[in-house]
Write a structure and sequence with these properties.
Layout (H helix, E strand, L loop, with lengths): L7 H89 L5 H11 L4 H6 L2 H16 L5 H22 L2 H10 L6
């Protein structure tokens, strides 16, 4: 039968069968492509997982190295700090606990001589209180005018004693002010 003579129903059925065949073929191709895509995605995921695992291991190793370096640096710093603190404390002990307090007494006499601090350092409490008392009374009487003179005198005594302390030799200072207990000049 010719195409013209075919029944429209037959024509529709033929077109339907043709479309059905194409759809099956297209579905089959799509299924194969989806399968390929799924396999590719699985491979990519597997590779990404392996790379992430390698990266995590490298990061973990780097963190361990960093932590070790940090611990070493902290340990070195702590040792240096202890060493410096020990040196400082030995130096302070040497100045404050030694038999010869020449430099400490001399500097304090020049700077705070009016208050008699240098006398207390050398163990002369009575003389230290005398200088401190004169200075306090001088501050109280400074509005009268006489007080300024009293503060000035006690300051000059401290300055002179500080210069004397610093210009004496260590042995001479020790023998005069610590063994001989000479309280003034």
């Amino acid at each position: 039968m010719s195409e013209e003579n075919k029944d429209p129903e037959d024509k529709a059925e033929g077109a339907f069968d043709k479309a059905k065949g194409k759809a099956k073929k297209t579905a089959k191709e799509a299924k194969e492509k989806a399968k390929e895509f799924t396999e590719d995605a699985k491979e990519s995921a597997k590779e990404a997982k392996e790379k992430a695992k390698e990266f995590a291991e490298e990061t973990k190793e780097s963190a361990k190295e960093f932590a070790q370096d940090t611990k070493e640096a902290a340990s070195d710093f702590a040792e240096d700090a202890k060493k410096t603190a020990n040196e400082f404390s030995e130096g302070v002990k040497g100045v404050t606990e030694s038999d010869n307090k020449k430099i400490l007494a001399g500097v304090l006499a020049i700077v705070l001589g009016a208050f008699g601090v240098h006398k207390f350092i050398l163990g002369y409490q009575k003389e230290g209180f005398i200088m401190l008392g004169i200075t306090i009374v001088g501050f109280v009487l400074s509005c009268v005018g006489v007080g300024v003179f009293m503060v000035w005198i006690s300051g000059m005594i401290g300055l002179i004693e500080g210069i004397i302390y610093l210009t004496k030799s260590d042995e001479d200072f020790y023998n005069t002010y610590q063994v001989g207990k000479k309280p003034w000049f």
